[in-house]
Amino acid sequence: MHSTSSSQIAECMIRTLCQMKHFIRTGYGDSKWSYIGTKNKPLQGAVQGNGAASPIFVAISCTILAYLERQVVGISVYSAITLTLFTLVAILYVDDSDILIAAVEKDETAYSVSRRAQKAATAYQNGVHQTGGAVRPEKCRWYSISFKWIAGEWKYDNNPKIDKVFIQNSNGNEREIERLKVNQGWKGLGIVAAPDGKWKDHVTYLIEEKIQPWNASISTSYLHRHDVYRSAFTSIFKSVDYTLPATSMTSSQCKLINTQLHKKILPRIGVDVHLPLAYRYAPKCLQGLGSMNIEVKQFTAKLKIFLQHAGTSSQIGKMIQLNIEIIHLLIGMNQPIFSLDYSKYGHLAERGWITHIWEMCDQYKISIDGQYEQPTIARANDSDLMELLVKADIHDDNDLRSINKCRIYLEVQNMSDITDGSGTKIPHCALHHIKDPERISKYKWPKQPKPTKNDWIAWDDAIKNVWTISETYHIQSKLGEWTQQPHFNTPWYIDQHNPKLLYYKTSEMNYNVYVKKKCKEDKGKINTSGLILQINYLFTAIKP
Fold this sequence. Notes:
- The protein is α+β, with helices and mostly antiparallel strands.
- The chain folds into six domains: 43 residues, no CATH class; 130 residues, no CATH class; 100 residues, no CATH class; 54 residues, no CATH class; 83 residues, no CATH class; 53 residues, no CATH class.
- The chain has 16 helices and 23 strands.
- α4 runs parallel beside α6.
């Protein structure tokens, strides 16, 4: 009975909206002419001011997204360390929609992705049309974000081999969607963002379209000083503040905005423009103006979002997790990133939303503590490779980046990753720049083509002068017992019932079997189960 009455109420509202008679009201009165929906051409939309408009929009958006997910594959990414799957096909906010399409295979071409983007655009246009809406091609833009590798370093490919993308307007006419360059910002929800993560277009937008018009109006106004002060906090400051949680503007960009923001305000409220910045930004309780510092406001706004979502299952929480995990592999460190010196390790990672928070935390001596999955050392007396390099302080930043490229290519994080089972010597693969085929990492490492000759020269220098102590490539401090499962798998296994039998896995169903022989060097105990991580005269095992 309840469901029947609810459906009748909904039907009554929708029927009324579809057949409602509309007039235009102005200061001169109501129009005599009107328009009304008919049975064959009902009016669309939930009507502005309708309390049910928001849930109706959510229901329609969910229907469109569900249809889009059945038609195309958007983004499907595993986190680097925990291998958590993150999927996303589109981001919708009222009438602003961003459809995200990414390669599903490592070797998928930019052309193939562009063809899937066309399929997504067509599917989205069909979904909007079927739910009573329409897409306006003149308001649509798209980016092709593809890369090319030069001398072991990635660059944006500004001229990829791709197809054009088209979409139909409300009249059924096909129009080409304009493609923007990756460094070209496009305004969405009041923020001018570009895929390359730089904010020069947004800075220009804030200054030319927000701050300068406000400055011009305030310069010629007859407002009293106190009214100008209040206007700044309730008007222009709010316009700029709204955009800051999404941005990662540099210190110089923030300084430029601060200068333009206070250029006219200070003289209009009777304050010397040369007033020390400490008084400008200090709160009123400390005899300051309490004005807005763009850099500080940007940082605190982002920090609030980070603390609210980090470690949660929200979409933002998952994206934070993705970024933090990949940063650990990019910089080669196991410690929490917010406890590290940004000036020493920040240049090893790409600049982004998380690394900007890290930079600001380091600058203002703010500590962020929390529990999350991160790489760990697996043996006693083990160390991070990059930490040893930074502490040695014999390589400049360029050499560190070269060594780091080699490390990522080899997919190694700790000393135990490039040390033999005995924990005393660098084995053949690390010395000859080869990925160890018997140590397959479980992490999802960032893509890194084979480094250049100069990169490998820096890598060899690190082995000789930091990680080892002699030409025999013996490491400085012998590694101890395995304390936990490492991040790599190995094909060697020991028989759980007979520790003298050793297995080498050659395929899913086949093993080579080895029998342990008596030897004078056999001293100590043998673990009787698990994965073999050391193969010498004495086997050392650890549970899988």
